Amino acid sequence: MLTERATAAVADEAPALAGEEPRFLNRELSWLHFNRRVLAEAANTSYPLLERLRFLSISGTNLDEFFMVRVAGLRGQQLRKIEDRSIDGLTPSQQLPLITAKADALMADQQALWRELHAALGEHAIRVLELYEITRDEGSELERFFAEQLLPIITPQALDPAHPFPFIPNLGMSILFELKRKADGEAVRELIMLPAALPRFYQFDEARPRFVALETVLRYFSEALFPGFEVVGSAAFRVVRDSDIEIEEEAEDLVRYFRSAIKRRRRGRVIRLEAESAIPPELASLIARELGGDDAMISETDGLLGIADLAQIVDIDLPELKFEPYTPRFPERVREHDGDCFAAIREKDIVVHHPYESFDVVLAFLRQAAGDPDVLAIKQTLYRAGKQGAVIRALCDAAEAGKSVTAVVELKARFEEEQNLHWAAQLERSGVQVVYGFIELKTHAKISLVVRREGKAIRSYCHFGTGNYHPVTARIYTDLSFFTADPQLAAEAAEVFNYITGYIEPQRLEQLAIGPLNLREKLYALIDREIANASAGKPSGIWAKMNALSNRGVIDKLYEASAAGVPIRLIVRGVCCLRPGVPGLSDTIEVKSIIGRFLEHSRVWAFANCAAMPGARTEVYISSADWMSRNLDRRVEYALPLRNPTVHDQVLEQVMLANLLDDEQSWEMLPDGTYRKVVPGKRPFNLHTYFMTNPSLSGRGESLGEGGAVPKLTLHRRG
């Protein structure tokens, strides 16, 4: 169960309503609220200890990226005197102080939780040693490490008029020493940057894990570092820089532009300076000024800088302190055809639920296409493919085998730009036709198209995903893969590729909705239909699952639906700018967030469409898009209706319903934007446990009642 402190911290995050509330919640504060829910998982005492530490590390990584991108954007607007207002009516100058206060409070709670987890780790003989805890034997081992590995890399630098302040890269950590020369008592300041080439923590013994941070090692050997000086004091600090890359419309060569931009990113504007509390205020201001961040947000802590680096400790091999290992199942439908993906898809559309069912089926699909002499062409989008190149290797093999292979590589995928440039070069060397898409749009749709000769006919096979072609994240993100040989969908997928590669707008889209062409209009039309049904006294309802909801137009449309009496239940993992349950505004809207072992990433939309009436059926879509402005207006996205009855029912009556039923990992959103942990009922239901313990989407197992089947989703009118 959650500790009272962590739960209270989540509840206290958002400001209370006062007077006439705005119709929308602030996006940045909503994001901070989300990261609070992540931090609350680190306080969940029912989790194994190292998994709690993992969530603490994730909350640190999240916060770093938040400052590198979102806060950096607001700061840039403020400096350029751009006073564009947020969805809740605040200027950048009004938002930044609120963000700073909330972020500082979040960091303080991270440190408090780290102290708690640090003590708990000690009970399992896992130690992160402080300076005074290092024994003589440990000191001897550290001395070898210091002399052989650390000392040759570091470069102490005096801070005086003869030595300009060194450049410190994004997320770089340094330690500042206050020294006094023994010969004459003169004060000297020396700075040492921690080398990024070494892990943050030195590990002594894998059998009995003990760690020491590099800054502690430097302090331990400070006399050896500075002979002839007395160490008066020291303080570590860390720099967070603006790391977003803005695309210039006049960029003539996108690849060359990004190679240059990635290098510039290391030198982005300083947004936040994090320092140990021992650092004198005038020194913190000096550092900020020297680094070009006079107005940088400065925060001090008496704990551990760089909470994200705790991921290194999580990786130690102590399975008893982690979740029980889970091995995804390979889809039975493909096994029944002796691993022949094309035969299985030809027989019937297939939906695969990751990570419960293995991403290996996607790799098998591409590998089979690469090795099949009857396959003529492969077309593939790549947004985030990760560092493991299984997908890339399959595409390269296909091209080297003489097939026509086209890869749409999105260079603008944030923090994946460098990796994607690497993959693009490798693909091109193998003969793949690499396309970078639009300058002003990101290609975020996840589509794979395989064209195969079968006798005298040509048949196409498609894969549509809600997640990336990323073998690593596919083990921890929940996503859906849809495989089909439907000729109409294949033709429409081909039109989407032509749109991306040749700017040829699709003319015959009957099933797919594509952003930014008609995705918003399609979504509005689906909501309008529910409004019309409710107004006519017919059953209505909207159930949707996504990562974020922040678009003003969509929220207004949902408010309109609520005013008409449409029951709306939303599962929004992260940012949500809609206010649920506000009388006269959103009475019929419920919002919850699910945070647990796996990261909920799939996008699913369901619209009642008079489902309770004869001959009508709830309409279900899977999508690559969240309900955000960037997804609807500035990205190539898709939404796909599930027409196959079996697939339709699997997604609606199992995936969607299980998300709605979960009461062990769910947070209920309140009208003021705060969240309250859902109290489990008499028969608690854990979404992730259910799908881990049921063999497939067929609903077999005993997680939900004596019969073992997932209950049917039923419509109801409120009031």
Detailed description of the structure:
Helix content is 36%, strand content 20%. It has 719 residues and is an alpha/beta fold. The radius of gyration is 27 Å and the shape is globular. The chain has 4 domains: 115 residues, Up-down Bundle (Methane Monooxygenase Hydroxylase, Chain G, domain 1), CATH 1.20.58.310; 188 residues, polyphosphate kinase like (2-Layer Sandwich), CATH 3.30.1840.10; 178 residues, 2-Layer Sandwich (Endonuclease, Chain A); 180 residues, Endonuclease Chain A (Endonuclease, Chain A, 2-Layer Sandwich). Helix 1 packs antiparallel against helix 2, helix 13 packs parallel to helix 14 and helix 17 packs parallel to helix 18.
CATH architecture of the largest domain: 2-Layer Sandwich
What does the oligomeric state look like here?
Answer: single chain
Q: DSSP helix count?
A: 21
Please state the average pLDDT score: 88
Topology at a glance:
Elements: H1 4-11, H2 27-42, H3 49-79, H4 92-122, E1 127-128, H5 136-150, E2 157-158, E3 173-181, E4 187-193, E5 201-203, E6 210-213, H6 214-220, H7 222-225, E7 229-241, H8 254-265, E8 270-276, H9 281-290, E9 297-301, H10 311-314, H11 332-335, H12 341-347, E10 350-354, H13 360-371, E11 375-382, H14 390-400, E12 404-409, H15 417-429, E13 433-435, E14 442-443, E15 446-454, E16 457-465, E17 477-484, H16 487-502, E18 513-515, H17 519-535, E19 542-546, H18 552-563, E20 568-572, E21 589-594, E22 599-600, E23 603-607, E24 619-623, H19 629-633, E25 635-641, H20 645-661, E26 666-669, E27 675-677, H21 687-693
Parallel strand pairs: 1-6, 8-9, 11-12, 12-13, 14-25, 17-22, 19-20, 20-21
Antiparallel strand pairs: 2-4, 3-4, 3-7, 5-6, 7-8, 10-17, 11-15, 15-16, 16-17, 18-25, 19-23, 21-26, 23-24, 24-25, 26-27
Helix pairs in contact: 1-2, 2-3, 2-4, 3-4, 13-14, 14-15, 17-18
